[in-house]
Amino acid sequence: MENIHTTVLRSEVVDALNLKENGTYIDATFGFGGHTKEIIEKGISNIKVIGIEVDKEIYDNAKNLFKSSKNVFIYNSNFIDVADIVVSCGLDKVDGIIFDLGTNLYQIKESGRGFSFLKNEKLDMRLDLDSDLTAEKIVNSYKREDLERVLKSVDERFYRPIAKKITEFRKKKRIVTTDELVEIVESVKYRKGKIHPATLTFMALRIEINQELENIKKALENSLKILNKKGRLVVITFHSGEDRIVKNFFREKSKEGILKIINKKVILPARQEQKENPPSRSAKMRVVEII
Ligand SMILES: C[S@@+](CC[C@H](N)C(=O)[O-])C[C@H]1O[C@@H](n2cnc3c(N)ncnc32)[C@H](O)[C@@H]1O
Q1: Which residue among 124, 125, 127 is best mutated to probe the pocket of ligand 1, counting the most ligand atoms within 8 A of its Cβ?
Q2: Residues of the binding site for S-adenosyl-L-methionine
Q3: Domains parsed from the chain with CATH numbers
């Protein structure tokens, strides 16, 4: 598998972790292991990394990539199970956790699972290939009001006409490809500027299928159970729905005296990084420390 993903905020994430000798860190969205590699390359003695990756295809590749790294242990699991994974490693607590949310570029461009509106593929969009819910199932079986709810959750202003068109289209023919979905969206929404009209529809389906927003909340709650005092939690989000959850969670827990917010303002990739890696433009990083 070719690594076409460029790790976002690579050094900023690792600096934010405040690495220490003998520390154990979790890379909860392992992908191609860019952040883990940066941790290992710091050369701090006796550091361990536990990696978590939900996508079996990406996990198999990651195991292979890191097969000679004795201090990296990778699990094919959902990050909501972060606390159980730590226990199963025979550990109590860890010193830092990274969440670099969303999908990697391989999944979007090469996995053939219909994540992109730019390629005609089957409507799947699952990260966890063992789960039952696919994009095809949603567009062909969700009631119109449920489709509206899903689209509205990413602030798609055309949620009503798109949902209506989906239900009309499927009466004539089952919707099975990304091209069919793009055709439906484009029949009610025109391109404005650079952004493709189907961008939000595809994002909304991906979030619904993979329960991304619910999972973030659960994973953050579970992370607090396993972080040592002074342990750091570093989260990179890629859209406002994700960032809102993380920001509110951190504010709430800070008021409860559980953690302190390290960066009052979100950390964004430097201009140079944004230029070299355009997907990094929507990244926002937040860092907290357990007290
Ligand atoms: C933005 S990529 C991370 C890239 C990684 N930091 C790197 O440098 O290669 C997000 C990764 O997290 C994985 N992922 C998404 N949701 C997950 C979840 N709930 N549990 C575990 N892994 C998840 C995706 O499959 C994807 O590989």
Answers
A1: 127
A2: 33-35, 53, 79, 100, 107
A3: 10-106+212-290 (3.40.50.150), 132-209 (1.10.150.170)
Q: Mean pLDDT, the chain, as a whole number?
A: 96
pLDDT (tens digit per residue) in 215-263: 999 999 999 999 999 999 999 999 988 999 999 999 999 999 999 999 9
d(CA 285, CA 12): 9
Is the predicted ipTM greater than 0.85, yes or no? yes
Where in the chain does DSSP place strands (E)? Answer: 24-27, 48-53, 72-76, 94-100, 227-237, 259-261, 284-290
Residue 190 has pLDDT above 90, yes or no: no
- Provide the pLDDT confidence category of residue 180 given band limits of 50, 70 and 90: very high
Residue that the structure tokens 């991304």 belong to: 212
Q: Are 96 and 25 a contacting pair, CB within 8 Å?
A: yes
Q: Which residues contact 69 (CB under 8 A, 6 or more apart)?
A: 40
> How far does residue 161's CA lie from ligand 1's centre (Å)?
32
Sign of the alpha-carbon dihedral angle for 121, 125, 130, 132: negative
Percentage of the chain beyond pLDDT 70 is 100
